[in-house]
Write a structure and sequence with these properties.
Hypothetical protein af1432, 2 domains
């Protein structure tokens, strides 16, 4: 049997949609804080007032502001001062990472990922995306980080259904020589990128992140009206492939990882082998930071 009958497929789709409706949006204080971080008229005190409702996030931001990376000669204990020092983009990313961590830090047997592997992969793609953004100068480093962090969030929703149809999906991949995501769609009526886009939209994130999530497995199929997001998409696509090639979060679908030449060309990356060697060293350097984030 290489396919699920139409009745079963429709039942799966109905259940997926129902599960999507059960997924809560970000906590209200998170949404409020993010809005203030994006409001040009807000100040650090406004953000601090909203953020103060979560002691864990306050401590994380203070810890980062006092780290050696910022070269402070004195201790910073005021959250408003820490926010002003780090900058709104960095604070926004800390909040986002803390919020999605609980959703990602679990085992996803449908994708053959042990507990923590989706989080590890997503955070490494975020770091790698930011690295590539800085290297190429094609996109904001902080936007690249967020796009990388969110790219696989749809797997959290689809996991149970992929597990149910895993044997069929794998058989289609082997028989038709197609990507895992395409087989996902054929069996379930959705793939994890499409589901991820819906989630990111529900979380009221900017369109640029929705595009990066939706198209990270098909970077050359971006509609003309969204071409302004091509650099971000290319950075996330290349970062995801590099991390899979390094074996970081190499689940069931990772075995079909493919390095598209077009994103490399658009980003001006002419020597992928050299870049890949750099990323091997880079992966080791960020391991401690990733452990820090997991402690949020």
């Amino acid at each position: 049997m290489s396919e699920i009958d139409e009745k079963s497929r429709e039942l799966i789709k109905t259940r997926i949609i129902s599960k999507m409706q059960d997924i809560k949006s970000f906590p209200q204080f998170v949404m409020e804080t993010m809005r203030k971080l994006n409001d040009p008229d807000s100040n650090a005190a406004d953000v601090a007032k909203s953020l103060s409702r979560d002691e864990g996030l306050v401590l994380r931001i203070l810890k980062l502001a006092n780290s050696a990376a910022y070269g402070q000669s004195r201790s910073i204990s005021n959250i408003s001062e820490a926010i002003a020092l780090l900058g709104y983009k960095s604070v926004s990313n800390i909040i986002l990472a803390a919020t999605v961590y609980s959703a990602m830090d679990k085992g996803l047997t449908g994708y053959a990922l042990d507990r923590g592997e989706l989080w590890r992969h997503s955070l490494m793609v975020a770091y790698t995306s930011r690295y590539l953004a800085k290297l190429t100068g094609k996109v904001s480093t902080e936007d690249a980080y967020v796009g990388g962090l969110l790219h696989d969030i749809g797997k959290v929703i689809l996991n149970d259904y992929v597990r149910f149809g895993y044997g069929i999906i794998v058989k289609i991949v082997e028989e038709k020589h197609i990507p895992f995501t395409e087989a996902e769609w054929q069996v379930l009526g959705f793939d994890h990128a499409e589901i991820g886009e819906i989630l990111v939209s529900r979380w009221e994130m900017p369109e640029s992140y929705r595009v990066a999530v939706a198209y990270h497995h098909k970077p050359n199929e971006l509609p003309e009206d969204k071409l302004q997001y091509q650099p971000l998409l290319d950075v996330v696509t290349v970062a995801n492939t590099i991390c899979l090639m390094l074996g970081i979060g190499l689940g069931a679908d990772g075995l079909q990882a493919y390095i598209f030449p077009e994103p490399l060309e658009r980003l001006g990356i002419t020597n992928f082998e050299s870049l890949f060697s750099e990323m091997i060293d880079f992966a080791g350097k960020v391991a401690s930071d990733m452990g820090d984030m997991a402690g949020l």
